[in-house]
TrEMBL record:
<feature type="binding site">
    <location>
        <position position="203"/>
    </location>
    <ligand>
        <name>Zn(2+) 2</name>
    </ligand>
</feature>
<dbReference type="InterPro" id="IPR008007">
    <property type="entry name" value="Peptidase_M42"/>
</dbReference>
<feature type="binding site">
    <location>
        <position position="170"/>
    </location>
    <ligand>
        <name>Zn(2+) 1</name>
    </ligand>
</feature>
<dbReference type="InterPro" id="IPR051464">
    <property type="entry name" value="Peptidase_M42_aminopept"/>
</dbReference>
<feature type="binding site">
    <location>
        <position position="225"/>
    </location>
    <ligand>
        <name>Zn(2+) 1</name>
    </ligand>
</feature>
<keyword id="KW-0645">Protease</keyword>
<protein>
    <submittedName>
        <fullName>Putative aminopeptidase FrvX</fullName>
    </submittedName>
</protein>
<feature type="active site" description="Proton acceptor">
    <location>
        <position position="202"/>
    </location>
</feature>
<feature type="binding site">
    <location>
        <position position="170"/>
    </location>
    <ligand>
        <name>Zn(2+) 2</name>
    </ligand>
</feature>
<dbReference type="InterPro" id="IPR023367">
    <property type="entry name" value="Peptidase_M42_dom2"/>
</dbReference>
<feature type="binding site">
    <location>
        <position position="311"/>
    </location>
    <ligand>
        <name>Zn(2+) 2</name>
    </ligand>
</feature>
<keyword id="KW-0031">Aminopeptidase</keyword>
<dbReference type="GO" id="GO:0046872">
    <property type="term" value="F:metal ion binding"/>
</dbReference>
<keyword id="KW-0479">Metal-binding</keyword>
<dbReference type="GO" id="GO:0004177">
    <property type="term" value="F:aminopeptidase activity"/>
</dbReference>
<dbReference type="GO" id="GO:0006508">
    <property type="term" value="P:proteolysis"/>
</dbReference>
<comment type="similarity">
    <text>Belongs to the peptidase M42 family.</text>
</comment>
């Protein structure tokens, strides 16, 4: 496992439309395994590895680069930054948290995030204390309205070597997985044309998957994303346990997958003894939810990575889950053919 890559991806800062730190890491890691690199016009980056079959099936795996976070909305006269959220940051993650601001020049400025509340205890406003006392001192630090603010967490092993704690595991674990899968596929023969899409702006309306799908026009789309593990439940009701393998998602609010494709993925996992969890979401949604509505419709499915704690300063991920997700992607990619795809869409 490439733990150093996971650490770099988790520590990088990237909210919607400000994903250059993550994009640069992925380009550094994935270009050598790609025959072509493409972009859409919002910054999603697509790594193409050609297959051996002429006019072969086109398969896209996508993972989003952006994390939940904030933008500087207002700077007060006494030097406090007031914020707006990008994505569903948990309210309990907004109090007394260390954060970092990325300036237009790329400098990191550190502060403490806190909130004011309504009479009923709901979060009213979010503000960051930089330790200064005036708007002028804020300006001297290079901080401006519109700057990105992220949690100041640093990825590290968490008491045992197979578990890592860090920020932005939604969806830097997915970015890690598509990166390492593409490297392995470079050494293997596959008939399918493979596209690994690092998408923009998923946390603010699943935008990147839709546009990347239109750009590539694949036959099948797999979103490689995450789901939060209800950490106090470790019985039959929890299908998101870390260390128990990736989730093959049977349903969410935005997608009910093609039943033949779903069966194929489950059978592929069983054939190669890859542990998995069969999950469903009552709500939620991923890039697959918007991608499958592109053009005349696309086959799509979600492969999920279980996390403990999500949309917060810290998430826990299990390296075995990442390894098994990589293996599942590789096995899917090397098994798919044009003929198999035609079976899926034979209604």
């Amino acid at each position: 496992m490439n733990e150093e890559l996971l650490i770099r991806l988790s520590n990088a800062d990237a909210v919607a439309s400000k994903e250059s730190e993550v994009r640069d890491i992925l380009k550094e890691e994935m270009c050598a395994s790609s025959d072509e690199v493409m972009y859409d016009k919002i910054g999603s980056t697509i790594f193409h590895q050609r297959g051996t079959q002429e006019d072969g099936v086109k398969v896209m795996f996508c993972a989003h680069m952006d994390e939940v976070g904030f933008l500087v909305r207002h700077i007060s006269e006494i030097g406090f930054l007031y914020l707006v959220t990008l994505g569903g940051v948990l309210d309990k993650a907004k109090e007394n948290q260390r954060v970092r601001v990325t300036t237009a020049a790329g400098q990191k400025v550190y502060g403490i995030l806190n909130v004011t509340k309504t009479d009923k205890g709901a979060v009213k406003e979010m503000y960051v204390d930089l330790g200064v006392d005036s708007k002028e001192e804020v300006a001297a630090l290079g901080v401006e309205i519109g700057d990105m603010v992220t949690f100041d967490s640093h990825c590290t092993p968490f008491n045992r070597p197979e578990v890592y704690a860090g920020k932005a595991m939604d969806d830097r674990t997915g970015c890690y997985v598509i990166c390492e899968a593409l490297k392995r596929l470079k050494t293997l023969e596959h008939q399918a044309d493979i596209y690994m899409a690092a998408t923009s702006s998923e946390e603010v309306g699943v935008r990147g998957g839709k546009l990347a799908t239109y750009r590539v026009n694949p036959d099948i789309v797999f979103a490689v994303d995450v789901a939060n593990n209800p950490e106090l439940v470790k019985n039959y009701a929890n299908h998101r346990l870390i260390g128990h393998g990736p989730m093959i998602v049977h349903y969410d609010r935005m997608l009910a997958p093609n039943e033949k494709l779903l069966r194929f993925v489950k059978e592929t996992a069983k054939k190669h003894q890859i542990p998995y969890q069969a999950d469903m979401f009552g709500g939620g949604g991923t890039d697959a939810g918007s991608a499958h509505l592109s053009r005349e419709g696309k086959l799509a499915l979600v492969i999920g990575i279980p996390l403990r704690y999500c949309h917060a300063p810290w998430s826990l991920t299990h390296m075995a889950d990442l390894e098994h997700t990589i293996e599942l992607i590789v096995r899917i990619a090397t098994s798919l053919t044009k003929e198999k795809y035609q079976e899926f869409i034979s209604f």
